[in-house]
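EI: anyone free to look at a 265-residue chain?
SC: sure, send it
EI:
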Amino acid sequence: MSEIRIGAHVDQTDPIAEARARKAPLVQFFLGDPQGYKGPEVRYAGGEDALRADAEEAGVDLYVHAPYIVNVATTNNRIRIPSRKLLQQHVDAAARIGAKGLIVHGGHVNKADDPETGFDNWRKAIEAVELKLPLLIENTAGGDNAMTRYLERIGRVWDAISTTEQADRVGFCLDTCHAHAGGNDLTTVVDDVRAITGRIDLVHANDSRDAFDSGADRHANFGAGRIEPDLLAQVVRDAGAPVVCETPGGPDEHLADFTWLRDRL
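SC: here you go
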């Protein structure tokens, strides 16, 4: 399992330096404000072309996380339409810097809405957005109206997406904290997800500050949370995908988390 590539979510100003500080072969970061509709912004000193070239030269794989506010499932036009536009902008920008994938949360519908509308809105989004790189939909931790908290809901999203021409460009990002807090059995979650999606492209490896099925999205460093250590490592091992640690801290804390995880793999 030593071949599993492990990196971290880092500040977007200089992802290459952040990767070097962690001796990491991959990093994930935002492009711009994760809570704003302004659009992607490359803060790397040399701009998009330099970031792409420098990452290739350094042998560092780049992953971009879409803004948290993106919600293409909602029935609220004032959120769904700007979200779809923002998603396309981030797809374009992530492709220009040579990113391996763009991660996006599954979103949710309002309490009074029929979840079926949310599934169909995902279909419409995949039909409307030109996917220039893999779009990795991530499971989320909370909310009874969430599209990707529960396995059954993930299955319905995949059913809707499967009818689109770009279905093969849509992948899955499995977050261990979200799965635990969302009430999914970690002993079987890898097989459960693969049975639905056919793939796991990336793992967000995080411990959880909160109890199983709490619905709370609060990450913890490995061994400092509520997920049984060997079980967390088992998920990473079984998934066999590149790993991004979204755990608290900087290079020192992340290096400690990398060591903790590798020792158990």
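EI: The chain is about 40% helix and 15% strand.
SC: 👍
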